[in-house]
Structure formats: structure tokens, C-alpha cells
Amino acid sequence: MTIEQAKELDMVDYLAKIGFQPKTINEPHYWYISPLRPDEKTPSFKINRSMNKWKDWGSGDHGNLIDFGIRFHQCSVKDFLQKLDANTPTFRPTQQKEDPNGPQSEITIRRVQPITSLPLIQYVRQRGIPLDTAERYLKEVHYDLKGKNYYAIGFKNDAGGYELRNKYIKASSAPKTSTFIDNKSGELAVFEGFFNFLSHQAINRNKQQPPTNFLILNSLSFFGNNISRMTAHDRVKLYLDNDKSGDKVTKQAMAIDCHKFSDERRLYAPSKDLNDWLLTNHPQQQHQHNQHQQRRSP
Questions:
Q1: Is the entire prediction scored with pTM above 0.85?
Q2: Which Pfam families does the record cross-reference, listed alphabetically (predicted)?
Q3: Residue 244 structural domain
């Protein structure tokens, strides 16, 4: 692997592979307890995923994946490239430890309940999702962040964390991972985010469909962690975003098994994703979306 190729590797994905998960996500910023300073108690290591760059606000260090790798593994650039080629990342002997009595800047879930808040109901409808579909998969989540109380719709992952959304925020609570919905089927549909999954449910809600399993990644960085789960199915339909990241992951999947995996993005091209397509092509959803946009305009 060359230096330029290494720089193109997704940093969020790489940190996940070596055992580090973000404490707080506010796209495109992913905040971690610093892997370079394991005694840290509050997240101060940030990855800007759109730029694929990191900065450790505690030390002032920053850079790309190469800069991170030689610090974390305490090795030369050549040695780090060899580690990437071998795909056998190593760990420091010291592990992250959090002091439960120390300052907490990450999200703390206080209460989870059915959706009753009118602003959240309006937000779900403005995203084109019928309320009965939303009520089946979403909850109203009340949480604390930096000493203040907030609430949002929440989509639960397999580790008990939540993807959190409302009109103003896009965040996640720890632990963050993917969500698998097992309907005992040999077919699997894969989505990057839960609104695209819900859009798929909304589009097909009045159709008779054969049972299908669903995998909502909640972040493309979890694609690699789910390869064995995906390949255990007879057929895997990919409903990823129409962007460079979606192109990259779809290409990786097709390289694994072009007969098992299928790229379904043609169904909603040229829209960015399935939710955008839903809002554009279904009059009721578009009307709700336009009302939402008008209310946000000054």
C-alpha cells in the first residue's frame, strides 16, 4: 500500500477496526476518548469525516491517517503501511479507562418512551414517514448533553445505543453500532441510515412483500464489521447513498460476491438517497417537506 492509498482509508472505519468507537457524533464530526492519550476522561479527539482528518485538542496534534498511525503504533511510516497491508492492527498495552465520577460530555439517556411530542411527530411526517411506521421502529428519547436536557426521536441499535434526530440535531448515544432486524429470511436489505430504511417501509407499506431481513448500518464504518452477517444470506440488496462513499462501499461489496450483492441505487437515482427520492416522488411527503422548509426560512 502506498502513502496516498493509505490517506484515502476512512479514519472512522480504521478506528473501529482497532477498537475505538466515537462517544459523540455530530456529522461530520466524530468525537473520541483520545486513542493517543488513554488516561483522558473526556472526548477531545475529533475526526472530521468529510475531510478525513483528525485533531487531538488535548495535545494539539493533528493530521491524516498516516500521522495518526505512526503515533498510535509508535512506528515508522514504512512499518505502518506494512501493518495496513497485513490487515492486522496491533493495540497499545494500555487500554482506555473512563472514570465514572469524572466529567461526562457524552450523551446520557434519561428516558425512552413512545413518541408523544408534537414537534417530533411533525418532524417524522416532514421526513415523509407515516406515523404508524415511525411508531413501530422509533422512540421518543430524552437525554442530557453537557448538563442540558434535550429530546429527539431515537432509533435503537443492537448494543442499546440510539441514533438521535430532531429538527436541529443529528447525533448518537454510546455505544454506537448497527441495527439488525431478523425476519428469518434468506434475503437482506442494507441501508446506511434509518430514515432510508423507514422510507423503504413507507414505500412498500401497502404492498405484499416476502419476508426480508434488514440491516441498518447507522454509519458506513460498520459495513466491514457486518460482512459475515451479510454473506450468510442468499441475497443482499444494497440501498446506500448516491455519493462517493456509497460508491466505494458498493464497489467493495460487489468485489466480495457480485452474484450475492446487488446495487439497488438505480431505483432512486439521481436522488441522493431513498428518503430524498420519497420526498420528491410522493406528493403528500413532498407537501409536508415543503411546509417544513418554509417554517425554517427567515
A1: no
A2: Toprim_2
A3: 179-294
